[in-house]
Design a protein that fits this description.
The structure holds two protein chains of two kinds. Chain A contains seven helices and ten strands. Chain A has helices spanning about 40-50, 85-90, 100-115, 130-140, 160-175, 190-195, 210-230; strands at about 5-15, 15-20, 25, 30-35, 55-60, 65-70, 150, 180-185, 195-200, 205-210. By secondary structure, chain B is an all-alpha fold. Chain B has one domain: Orthogonal Bundle (ABC transporter involved in vitamin B12 uptake, BtuC). Chain B has helices spanning about 5-30, 35-55, 60-80, 85-105, 110-115, 125-145, 145-155, 165-190, 195, 200-205, 210-235, 240-260.
């Protein structure tokens, strides 16, 4: 059974239709890239998925309640006081206990380790580098061991090496722990390297496709982008 | 100094208020609610003036006004992009009403000064008991919701599965702040609320990097200012609010300076 399934699903903002007649079925344990121009409805779709979008039509079924989400924007000022471990632990957001129990501590530690942050776990997040912050955001989303991980342009601010390392780690989780990944991105070379399926957002519709189609699509899109760039020059 | 009843009451009230202000302040500062806190204190002034006009205890009027206003601001918060402007409008209305009720109630200048600048040396045993009960209520409510409040205050962006409980927590948070403002105004007056609710917590965040340590440090800063302020007021016969304000501002400036030097 698929982890996400829609039937004639649509999203509106007032009178304006963002997406319509979306029929997709994302199987569990896959790495899906969400592609499309800015404003094509990728983020709106993800928001609907996690229950933040109210104006929807049709059917949208999410077959898990264990979701990790890394939002695109997060305002962390230099004087943000919490250290990285504390920030990751914010995801434990139920109950009253002031301190983490043993199990929670272990989960925080392994999330930090996965994201290469174990050595700087007591560093102030506000003073961490852009890449460290981004990895802390992902670690926070992973700490409760989600079945579905949604990354909204989470690699955009990382350098190439960190991008690859981050995605390799997530790919590994996907393969070993049957994690489903939705990766919103504009970086097509990463898509070709890591994703095994895609959802293309275009003109208010969503097309679902498999990895081999993705290759030719990637080439086509890279081609289009290249043409764009030539035109801009 | 402690042979006087009024000094005993003042120290006990100061201790209770500092603990509440330090703990709640940590969350208010993390959520960037400094301006809201200040506005609520002005609304508290209007509530207190209305209380005196209606013949109620000032604290009761204050609690009703601040809680009501914070719920209203919470309801507007989601829809309005410019929260600060809405807050300013409500604040202007509140101060206007406060002045009106002071005039209508023929409230004495002493009572009015008491609301605005605090009257810690005039706190009675009965007031003190009421403060303790309120303080316990606020702290217990906060602790019951500790983890969800912590996430809301420090990382709202991380909250994405919007449950009914999550929405309730936003309002619980606002009412906790409203009650803390009312409690703190007993000590420093409504004009100087941020001296205890905002400044100690804002200073603490330059030293501590975990929520529990932030709360402890904010309470220590608040207590230090309150106790020294009360002692200096006793020795010099000058207003306690003045000393508390100066001490808290100094702690804040030193914290910022040290942080900038080290960071």
């Amino acid at each position: 059974m698929g982890i996400i399934r829609t039937k004639d699903f649509g999203i509106r903002y007032g009178e304006k239709s963002i997406l319509a007649h979306v029929n997709i079925d994302v199987p569990t344990g896959r790495f899906f890239a969400l592609l499309g121009e800015n404003g094509a409805g990728k983020t709106s779709f993800v928001k609907a998925l996690i229950g933040q979008n109210q104006q929807t039509d049709g059917e949208l079924k999410l077959n898990t309640n264990r979701v990790g989400f890394v939002p695109q924007f997060r305002d962390i000022t230099r004087d943000f006081p919490l250290n990285i471990a504390e920030f990751v632990a914010l995801n434990y957001n139920k109950g009253w206990r002031l301190w983490l129990n043993k199990r929670e501590k272990a989960a925080v530690y392994s999330a930090l380790k996965l994201m290469d942050l174990a050595d700087i776990s007591d560093k102030r997040l506000g003073l961490a580098s852009g890449g460290q912050k981004q990895r802390a955001f992902v670690a926070q989303a992973l700490v409760q061991q989600p079945n579905l991980l949604i990354l909204d342009e989470s690699t955009a601010s990382l350098d190439h090496e960190h991008k690859i390392r981050l995605l390799q780690t997530i790919k590994q989780l996907q393969e070993t722990q049957h994690l489903t990944v939705l990766f919103i991105t504009h970086e097509l070379e990463l898509v070709a390297q890591f994703a095994d399926g895609y959802l293309l957002f275009e003109n208010g519709h969503v097309t679902q496709g498999e990895v081999d189609e993705l290759q030719s699509l990637t080439m086509k899109m890279t081609h289009i982008h290249a043409e764009d760039e030539v035109r801009h020059v | 100094m402690f042979s006087y009843d009024f000094m005993q009451n003042a120290f006990m009230a100061g201790t209770v208020v500092s603990i509440v202000a330090g703990i709640v302040g940590t969350f208010a500062v993390a959520r960037n609610y400094a301006f809201l806190t200040h506005t609520l204190s002005e609304i508290g002034f209007a509530g207190a003036a209305f209380g005196l006009f209606a013949g109620w205890p000032a604290l009761l009027g204050m609690m009703i006004a601040t809680s009501g206003a914070s719920l209203a601001i919470g309801a507007l918060e989601s829809g309005y992009t410019k929260r600060d402007n809405v807050t300013s409008a409500i604040s202007a209305l509140a101060i206007g009403l406060g002045i009106l009720f002071l005039a209508l109630g023929h409230t004495s200048t002493t009572a009015a000064t008491g609301i605005l600048f605090g009257s810690v040396l005039g706190i009675s045993r009965q007031n003190l008991l009421l403060l303790i009960v309120l303080a316990i209520f606020v702290i217990v409510t906060l602790l019951i919701n500790y983890r969800s409040l912590r996430q809301l205050a420090f990382d709202e962006a991380g909250i994405f599965l919007q449950s009914g409980r999550q929405k309730a927590v936003r309002y619980i948070f606002l009412v906790i702040i409203a009650l803390s403002v009312s409690i703190s105004s007993q000590l420093v007056g409504s004009l100087l609320i941020f001296v205890l609710v905002t400044l100690p917590a804002a200073s603490a965040k330059y030293y501590a990097t975990a929520t529990t340590r932030l709360m402890v440090l904010a309470v220590i800063f608040a207590l230090f200012g309150t106790w020294s302020g009360l002692s200096l007021a006793y020795l010099t016969n000058l207003p306690a609010s003045f000393f508390i304000a100066v001490i808290e501002v100094l702690i804040y400036l030193v914290s910022v300076w040290q942080f900038q030097k080290n960071a």
